């Protein structure tokens, strides 16, 4: 095994975290693009969702993460018992998440499924890879919302993406596998088509979250409009 060396230094993120809802047990937030979910080992990567929220909500912990470039909904546990209860919902796949994304090019089909196992490859860090032998099962569904031209001349498709599993970089690598990478995705080809080079961010937003409140038992349906 080759050692993984993470040289990434996050540029400063001046966008505040939007708190959408809170009670004594959990906090629902809208994460800005360009903010780490968790602080990195490098002291220059201290700023993160967790680092900011723990100032206001001591003892809070992350139940799940969003990639640095992804914006949108996150649920934060305010204590360990709530974290355990929510983690159980995630591991049992009873939490459903819907993302909005802009994909490069115009998709031929209006909906479909991407079923492709994903593996870690230390030699390619931070990239993941599709591998039928060592990959873990991964499945995503997509539905086309609209096809249009971004900034006048770049063909893009707005889609709703529903990951049925929760692998690292799943939606990004699955869209690349589909032949239509997420616009602005630096790791998986979303800055390669003509006219996409200066896309300011990863065009991926966690726009809907469904789970059950671990204390009240109420179904929680949270939505956040896409900023792009």
Describe the protein's architecture and organization.
It contains three helices and twelve strands, in the order E-E-H-E-E-H-E-E-E-E-E-E-H-E-E. It has about 230 residues and is mostly beta strands. The strands form two sheets. Strands 1, 2, 3, 4, 5, 6, 9, 10, 11 and 12 form a ten-stranded mixed β-sheet that branches. A two-stranded antiparallel ribbon has the order 7-8. A hairpin with a 3-residue loop joins strand 9 (about 140-150) and strand 10 (about 155-165). Pfam families: PseudoU_synth_2. It is an enzyme of class 5 (isomerase). Its EC number is 5.4.99.-.
Number of helices: 3
Give the proportion of residues in helices.
Answer: 10-25%
Largest sheet: 10 strands, mixed
| Secondary-structure element string | EEHEEHEEEEEEHEE
Structural class: mainly beta
Mean pLDDT: 95
Low-confidence stretches: none
Topology overview:
Blueprint: E1 18-22, E2 26-31, H1 49-56, E3 61-62, E4 71-77, H2 80-91, E5 96-104, E6 111-115, E7 118-120, E8 128-130, E9 139-150, E10 154-163, H3 170-178, E11 204-212, E12 219-223
Parallel strand pairs: 4-11
Antiparallel strand pairs: 1-2, 2-4, 3-4, 5-10, 5-11, 6-9, 7-8, 9-10, 11-12
Offer a quick outline of the entry.
By secondary structure, the protein is mainly β. The chain has helices at 49-56, 80-91, 170-178, and strands spanning 18-22, 26-31, 61-62, 71-77, 96-104, 111-115, 118-120, 128-130, 139-150, 154-163, 204-212, 219-223.
């Amino acid at each position: 095994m080759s050692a993984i060396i993470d040289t990434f230094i996050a540029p400063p993120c001046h966008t505040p975290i939007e708190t959408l809802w809170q009670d004594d047990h959990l906090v629902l937030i809208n994460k800005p693009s360009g903010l780490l979910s968790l602080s990195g080992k490098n002291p220059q990567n201290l700023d993160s969702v967790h680092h900011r929220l723990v100032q206001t909500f001591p003892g809070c912990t992350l139940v799940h993460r969003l990639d640095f470039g992804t914006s949108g909904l996150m649920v934060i546990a305010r204590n360990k018992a709530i974290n355990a209860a929510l983690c159980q919902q995630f591991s049992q796949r009873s939490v459903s998440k819907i993302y909005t994304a802009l994909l490069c090019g115009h998709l031929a089909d209006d909906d479909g499924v991407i079923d492709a196992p994903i593996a870690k490859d230390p030699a390619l860090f931070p990239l993941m890879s599709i591998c039928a032998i060592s990959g873990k099962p991964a499945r995503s569904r997509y539905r086309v919302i609209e096809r249009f031209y971004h900034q006048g001349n770049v063909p893009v498709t707005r889609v709703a993406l529903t990951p049925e599993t929760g692998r690292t970089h799943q939606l990004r690598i699955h869209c690349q596998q589909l032949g239509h990478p997420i616009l602005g995705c630096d790791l998986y080809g979303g800055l390669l088509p003509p006219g996409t080079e200066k896309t300011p961010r990863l065009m991926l937003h966690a726009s809907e979250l469904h789970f059950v409140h671990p204390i009240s038992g109420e179904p929680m349906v949270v939505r956040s409009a896409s900023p792009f």
